[in-house]
Specification:
Radius of gyration: 18 Å
Strand content: 15-25%
Oligomer: single chain
Family: Belongs to the CutC family.
InterPro entries: CutC-like, CutC-like_dom_sf
CATH architecture: Alpha-Beta Barrel
Order of helices and strands: EHEHEHEHEHEHEHEEEH
Distance between the termini: 12 Å
Helix content: 25-40%
Number of helices: 8
Protein name: Copper homeostasis protein cutC homolog
Subcellular location: Cytoplasm; Nucleus
CATH class: Alpha Beta
Function: May play a role in copper homeostasis. Can bind one Cu(1+) per subunit.
CATH topology: TIM Barrel
Length: 251
């Protein structure tokens, strides 16, 4: 991997983790349910991924999909998951929480960061749902987050590029600002050049057809708009390699 930048790939399977490393990823964000933006993975997945790759594995701590306003019971789940992921080899954690008025929940985040120590922690794309990103960034710096993952409070990192550039300038190296959301081979160079970011986050996935020969087209395992049952999304080695090469050229 080139000096001076780091590519993080979000993965939800062992195969994706292996492919991401083979393609040149410098770090993994390990999740389940990427269709929902990433939820806490199983301990089994963490353990097998750790056996299968050598690069750092940051584990998502997110008990459900939807918003980032958590009940007392959900907070207890998050605390337990932090404890378990730490004890089973996580290299870092990824989490976030907001108040009902769209601010960083400083009290809860302080509590979760204390539970996570000494592991480094990334504040995830809950940042993209805040009321005032500049104020939120200062809060994350004061709390001690290592980095923040953001699409610039827009539908993708390309659309949010002006804000990403602004908060990278504001951060002045006090916290890493990592663009993520819709990053592809087509837009990565523009995002890196336009933001000045030294890290970026992507999934680099392709669809892989199921090996099932017998198929029942009448049944789906999820909601009406769920993913196809006979298509699997996995990190694509060639896509990861291409993104790596673009970043190397750009930075």
């Amino acid at each position: 991997m080139a000096e001076g930048f780091l590519m993080e790939v979000c993965v939800d399977s062992v195969q994706s983790a292996v492919n991401a490393e083979r393609g040149g990823a410098g770090r993994l964000e390990l999740c389940s349910s990427l269709l929902e933006g990433g939820l806490t993975p199983s301990l089994g997945l963490l353990q097998v991924v750790k056996q299968s790759v050598k690069i750092p594995v940051y584990v998502m701590i997110r008990p459900r999909g939807g918003d980032f306003l958590y009940s007392d019971q959900e907070v207890e789940v998050m605390r337990k998951d932090i404890e378990l992921m730490k004890s089973h080899g996580a290299d870092g954690l990824v989490l976030g929480a907001l108040t009902e008025d769209g601010r960083v929940d400083t009290e809860l985040c302080t509590d979760l960061l204390a539970a996570a120590r000494p592991l480094p922690v990334t504040f995830h794309r809950a940042f993209d749902m805040v009321h005032d990103p500049e104020v939120a960034l200062e809060t994350l710096v004061s709390l001690g987050f290592e980095r923040v993952l953001t699409s610039g409070c827009d539908s993708s990192a390309l659309e949010g590029l002006p804000l990403i550039k602004r908060i990278i300038d504001q951060a002045k190296g006090r916290i890493a600002v990592m663009p993520g959301g819709g990053i592809t081979e087509r837009n990565l160079q523009r995002i890196l050049e336009g933001s000045g970011a030294q890290e970026f986050h992507c999934s680099a996935r392709s669809s892989k057809d199921s090996a099932m020969k017998f198929r029942n087209p009448c049944v789906t395992m999820g909601a009406a708009f769920s993913a196809p049952e006979y298509s699997i999304k996995v990190a694509d080695v060639s896509k990861v390699c291409s993104l790596n090469a673009i970043a190397t050229y750009t930075l």
